[in-house]
Amino acid sequence: MSDLYKVAIVGSGPAGLSAAAHAAALGMSHVLLEKTDHLSDTIYKYQKGKHVMATPSNLVLRSDFEFDAGKRETILGIWDEQAAAQNVNVMMNAEVAKVEGEKGDFAITLKNGETVRAETIVLSIGTQGNPNMLRCPGADSPMIQYQLDDPGEYFDEHITVVGSGDAGIENALGLAADDAQRNVVTILNRGDSFARAKAANVALLEEAEQDGRISVRRETTPAEVADGKMVLETRDGQETIACNRIIARTGSQPPRGFVEAMGIEFTSEERSAFPKLTPAFETTKPGIHVIGALAGYPLIKHCMNQGYDVIEFLNGNEELKPADEPILAEKFAALPGNHDVEYWLGVFGDNVSILEELSTLQLRELMLDSTVHAYEAGDVVFTRNAPGSSMFAIAEGAVAVEVNPDDPSITVPIEQGSIFGEVGLISGRRRGATIRAAEPVVAIELSRTAALKLIATSPGAARAVNRISVERQLLQMFGSGLTKEDVAPLVESAEVMAIRAGQVIIEEGADDKDIFIIRRGSMIVEKAIGGRPVFLSYLPAGSYVGEMAVIDGSLRSATVKAAIKSEVIRLPGEGFMELMERNPRVREQAMTDMANRREINAFIESRKDDFDGAVDMYSETASFLVDQGLGEATDVLLIDEKLCIGCDNCENACADAHEGLSRLDREAGKTYAHLHVPTSCRHCEHPHCMADCPPNAIKRGPDGEVFIDETCIGCGNCQRNCPYGVIRMDPKPPKKPSLLQWLFFGSGPGPGEASAKWRKTNGDPEQPKQAIKCDMCAGIKGGPACVRACPTGAAIRVSPDKFLTFTKITEDVE
């Protein structure tokens, strides 16, 4: 049996090392238990030559060890030297098997059979040993590895990195760093932005993508792993790529079983939840403290500060404040009441639903990336149609949403604890309503990056945001005076489902009774006629489907499948029936919708012998248009080639409206039958171009137009992200003279032209460029110039739900 140490520190990562160093500096009896034969296995497992960042830059470092940004090898060397010089008591190859006892006398049994006794324990074991495994067919393939030690060891391979956090990005960059390696590197990101990664890493990845060194696949996940290849689930369906090796960096989970065996409770039952902690890092098991990544705070500088702080607490320093205290104190100074940081953190954590499961450490980190506001009653938080993609959370008070722009007195309240602005966060749309403080309000404004990171890393926050957004979608869709209480049972039973392109959610002839709300993406409805699928209609985001079988108990009358990668809310049919029984107006609306769909089905059945060819043509045309991006469009330019005379008035008019640079290419694009889809922006419901715009220069206007403002820095991310090739990079031409100046004085270029001087320099690679795309002629009287200039009416701009409808069939065949 060993001596009784004041503290035993388990794990020698940055947090544990810093704790042991400070214990040594104070002369505190301590032992640092490391399961490997080297210090800081966390950093040791970083890839060879990795540049380690020291963020956040404005945070003071508290530690008896040095730390600054630098190479992995340099940092490890410095820490080895300092551990020896400062007499840190380290036991190597000391893996902990179990912990028994109580505060004052814990017995730590090692796997080699030895026992270490200590009054208190500090766990800094991180989560690295518990990686999230791939979950797809072939996930046991030897092609998959969860660690990358030396990127320089790999040559002439097709390598796919799964995961777009810092580790995944750094691995991809390392594998593509040396042209001599000739690796073909692809990185998969299941989202459209890099919420989990540091901004500097994202910038390096985007630079590598621009240079063609790395293929970045957004909104893509693994579907299957096979020998020498990988099947991807993309927004448009499945795709197979060559693949010799897969580096899976999909995060890791706390070693929950091991930790709970000590008597430590977690914040929730979620697999990725963290232990409950006091501000002094003490767990629900008295005498055991948790710091570092296991506490939910993985940045190295934060971890090292925690190591220092926990030893200070154990040494009796109860007045010590965290290192970020001055930063947060300055941030909270504008809030009412002259309260301290601890008070406001308590208010935020207790009152805001999306923050309830965050530890104090996680909450502090979130607040460093957020802004706090205090509003008086009547103050405007934001106005209708204002740009903005941040999300607000109400910590105190309530706000009023002005739902009728013509009558500001008609409002809907949002109370304390809830959120607003989530629509702008999810879709990038302008603010849908003016919101004012209904009483004195304290609110947190989370930037888009901070909000997405919170949702990605906190299961509780993700659940809360989902619940609130589902509730609001139900109220918006079914309206009729419904309250939150009316839809509460449906909200509780709702399930948000990710649907891959082409996946069926309703099968014709099936006997299920669920209703689906299309939250994101779009669906197409087909019916089997004469043994072949016939297109019936297109359902954009915001529509619902499936009520017919629920209301009359019939079998499914049509098949509904995703046009593109989508998200739906599944509502149990019995819950919807109960809602209708309690609310006659909802029933009336549902019956009307059902009658319209029955009418379409009946008409198809009655006329199928009369126009089989027309139905075939329409179905094939509809499929073609969906393939060309109408599945996610809000406005698309179509050209009827039976009417088009090739005059190019549309292109010239577009150029004349935009300083000589046309936003469309009439001849480019694909054609089916007589319908042509030229190269012009679709103004997607969820624009891919917005995903990684560093200056946030891409916005959505009040009429749905997606435009690029003057803050564009010419990085080219939007051009690479657009799947339809409708964005190009061009130097900005000089401002054109007026028509009268050109006519009477010959000033500058004429209609549809850029200046001769600019045309000469257009090919100059030194010329600064900006992103160019269709903006639907926003702000120009009369609407899109291309449509107005067409002499034959061949050019039309339509929303897909107006084109892909049954009425088009009747126009063509009757």
TrEMBL record:
Key word Hydrolase present: no
Family annotation (PROSITE patterns): 4FE4S_FER_1, 4FE4S_FER_2, CNMP_BINDING_2, CNMP_BINDING_3
Molecular function, one GO term: metal ion binding
Domain Cyclic nucleotide-binding: from-to ranges: 354-455, 478-597
Boundaries of every 4Fe-4S ferredoxin-type domain copy: 635-667, 672-703, 704-732, 768-801
Keyword 4Fe-4S assigned: yes
Keywords: 4Fe-4S, Electron transport, Iron, Iron-sulfur, Metal-binding, Transport
SUPFAM superfamilies cross-referenced by the UniProt entry: 4Fe-4S ferredoxins, cAMP-binding domain-like, FAD/NAD(P)-binding domain
Pfam families assigned to the protein according to its UniProt record, in alphabetical order: cNMP_binding, Fer4_11, Pyr_redox_3
Top-rank lineage group of the source organism: Bacteria
InterPro entries, sorted: 4Fe4S_Fe-S-bd, 4Fe4S_Fe_S_CS, cNMP-bd_CS, cNMP-bd_dom, cNMP-bd_dom_sf, FAD/NAD-bd_sf, RmlC-like_jellyroll, RnfB_subfamily
Name listed for the protein in its UniProt record: Cyclic nucleotide-binding domain-containing protein
